[in-house]
Write the structure tokens for this entry.
Amino acid sequence: MNDPWWKTRLSELDALPYNYDASEYVEGQPGWNVDHYDCDLPSESPGPPQPDGPYQIAREILVAYQFPDPSRIVGYFNQEDSLQGRNMVLEAKFLGIRFTFGVRVSKVIDDEQTTKDGTKTNRFGYAYRTLQDHWEIGEMQYLLVKHQPTGRIQFQMDSYSKYDRIPNVFYRWGFQLLGRRLQKQFAQRCLVRLNEMVQERMRAN
């Protein structure tokens, strides 16, 4: 049986560098689109994350990249690869046409933090950066935060980006016209979908 189409594309990503140097982004510098989104997920008992609780469920969904709306974007990767440094082929639908882009996980966050007042939080998430031939340059970060004193769980999305060179004039015009709206729709849908998926799996447990 032939490998699925994305296997070939994924293998090509190993040789691709990031399409920008991270030092190019300076917070507050004009020219970048900077976004933050967040929502509350179902809470759980105070204290560290519970096995099979909403924090753990959301964590598994994040690692599997199942929270984006598959009608807009689907991520393909090798399940055996570690999360840090993982390459992903993102299949996006834009203007009725299918496109593929490469990203690489550049950072993994998995820790417990204690604030000055002694409050503890658990964090899990990761960020990926764009690779050569992507239409944008930038980074997207997905982060879960559990507040141990209350059991509150948040999902946070942070990104910075700007358009890269798009050779095709038609695609460049369309992306510049609609790209920001699509970015915001993508993020809002991720928030809703992750919440729905966590609740659905909690009911099934």
Observations:
- The longest strand covers residues 97-114.
- The chain has a mean pLDDT of 89.
- Residues 169-204 form the longest helix (36 residues).
